[in-house]
Specification:
Length: about 325
């Protein structure tokens, strides 16, 4: 059991989301950074639902010792005042507290426990989808049931998905409606992640005029997916997120491939982003591989009871080789 002692705004429980409800007007939802769940899976095994915080401070208390995995955008973390590294799985002792504070690196951070938090399931998922009134933000006093389990401390190699960069696009059915000159200008444009953004999507800004199709006011409403880059009436692009609307009439110039969606959602305001169209084969080849995990070795300076530890497993004689 994990208790929420204090909590900033818009902290929720998220998992892989709920598929199969697009035709009923419900977006897939789930974690904004699916690669963070891959990292937690590698550290703990199949983790299920975890805590997602969009840079909001968070303080948790363990009721029963358990291992916790910290992934996604790095935060300043400590356990009972002892600083702990990010992208690791470490033991949170019974009654110990875990404090998380934003560091400004990335947007979405995650806390997972072995087996995941056993919160209420709705439509096959534990993920909160606030726009659809499914679930609610966490608040102080919430108790998150789980199965306490202590695992070996481990760390996972950090991936380079923070700070913006290149986003690869697949064409949508509406890409061909944009003139070739507009598509070329789009690929050559340096965009900046705007201040406006949430789990529904993020707004981009750029120098120069907006992007438009011919006769776009005559477009009929069509289906929409997370990752679609949609142009508003003034030609400003939005990258749609996991809680985006499911239909819309604005043209969509392309769709960010799944491998690059964490980079798009983790871009902080002011981060620079560019786009490049790729083929379906290139998008499939870009699918993320299993994260690399290694044992977590503590610095001896952090171990106050070093002399009490059994550092040598046996004694041997220097003359054994002569006998």
């Amino acid at each position: 059991m994990i208790e929420v002692l204090s909590c900033g705004p818009m902290v929720t429980i998220q998992d892989r989301g709920r598929a199969g409800y697009l035709t009923q007007g419900l977006a897939h939802g789930g974690a904004a950074d699916q690669h963070a769940l891959d990292d937690a899976d590698a550290l703990l095994g199949q983790v299920g639902a975890g805590i997602e915080t969009p840079g909001s401070p968070l303080c948790l208390r363990a009721h029963g010792a358990t291992t916790v995995a910290l992934t996604g955008a790095p935060m300043r973390a400590d356990m009972d005042g002892r600083a702990v590294a990010w992208n690791t799985a470490q033991t949170l002792e019974d009654q110990a507290t875990l404090n998380l504070r934003p560091s400004g690196q990335g947007v979405y951070s995650y806390v997972h426990v072995p087996g995941g938090f056993q919160t209420e399931t709705m439509l096959g998922s534990r993920a909160a989808h606030l726009i659809a009134n499914i679930g609610k933000p966490l608040t102080a006093g919430d108790r998150l049931p789980g199965m306490p389990q202590v695992l070996r401390p481990r760390k996972v190699a950090a991936s380079e998905r923070l700070g913006g960069g290149l986003l690869r696009l697949l064409p949508t059915p509406q890409t061909r409606l944009f003139p070739e000159a507009e598509l070329a200008r789009f690929a050559d444009t340096a965009f900046t992640r705007d201040m406006r953004g949430n789990r529904q999507g993020v707004r981009l800004s750029m120098n120069g005029p907006g992007f438009a199709t011919e006769a776009q006011l005559n477009l009929l409403s069509d289906f929409i997916l997370p990752g679609d880059v949609q142009m508003t009436g003034d030609g400003v692009p939005y990258i749609l997120g996991p809680e985006c609307q499911t239909t819309g009439g604005y043209p969509r110039i392309g769709t960010v491939i799944s491998a690059d969606m964490p980079r798009a959602m983790q871009a902080v305001p002011g981060a620079k982003l560019r786009f490049r169209f790729v083929t379906l084969a290139e998008a499939r080849a870009a699918r993320s591989k299993r994260p690399e995990v290694s044992p977590l070795v503590r610095d001896p300076s952090e171990i106050t009871d070093l002399l009490s530890l059994q550092l040598i497993g046996g004694v041997m004689s220097a003359r054994d080789g002569d006998s």
